[in-house]
User: What shape does this take?
Amino acid sequence: MASWQKDARLVKLIQKLVSKQGDNIGCGMIPPTGGHSGIDHTYRRIAALFYWKGLKEVVADYVKKCAICQKNKYDSAAYPGLLKPLNTPVTALSSISMDFIEGLPKSKGDTVIWVVDRLTKYAHFLAISHPYSVADIAKMFMKQIFKLHGASVLIHLLIGPNSFLMSSRPGGRLFTLLLKTTPYEALYGQPHPLHFSYVPGDSELPEVDRGMVTREFKLQLLKYHLDRSQQRMKMQSNKRRTDRQFSVGDWVYLKIQPHRQVTMVAHHFSKLSSKYYSPYMVIQKVGLVTYKLSLPVDLLLHPTFHVSVLKPCFAVPAQISHPPVLNISSPYCPKSVKILDRRMVQKGNKVVVQLLIQWEHLDEAQATWEDANALRV
Assistant: This one.
């Protein structure tokens, strides 16, 4: 038995200090002089007053579970979520990608719909102007794309810079790197997606057989270069990323930008508000890097998020505070009650249908004319 263990008063004091380790660490980090300044600074402040075996590990665990630090400090880890390239298309026009280029001069449409075949990089550029709806996009797709190439098996909508990289823009030196040929030759040198692959010797004419064999060779060459470029992009991108995964039932903090989220209460210094909110529980893993959270109904956010805006919660706080949201019944977020009238007006070179809308908690005299297409969205 050690000498200090024989002293009952000393043993009682040590036990009291051990039982209040969390309080001692909190005194070194929570007050204004501590300032939630991280693991190293808090450890030095505590070590100047107390010390016990494993002090640094205890301080690190305390800081990691601090709700204030988790909500207000940025995530110092590498970008969460590994790059997941799309599967290489089997044939031409079996998989296409779509994107919208907006903010152009208003001559014959301020928006361009960009449709690209992912295998051959053959592109169509369709002009359209606001306002437009999903039905308008579908009609234009049927009129300009479907009548020429038929129905594609997969359509990918580009969202974010990562999908833009994996789709590859149709221009510049990228054609030489990926295709080793021109888009026109790559597209029309291949059979229709519904055709079967050609087997050498099926044709009795040597010229036809050689031509079909050449086209099959070009198809395999396209797949090879496209797959190699995707793997190279994946390898280079994942060097600066971290693989972050969650399971159903885990609690995570959600990153929201108050100065961009219109359903949240405005603040004069919104950029200085908390970087993360909640935590919320993961209720479903939707994809490889997307998760569905259990959000309150009044938050008016889609519950599915990319892993890059989620941060693990190591200790669920006793009281969970949700982001301040606007009162939906307030004049800032009115609800439409009924349509009082309709009219057609000229906007530029187009005729637009407008509706006279009466809003909730407002009389008919305060009704406003709104574009019908905007209300559908």
Observations:
- The CA atoms of residues 255 and 276 lie 4 Å apart.
- The chain has a mean pLDDT of 75.
- The first strand starts at residue 79 and ends at 80.
- The chain has eleven helices and 14 strands.
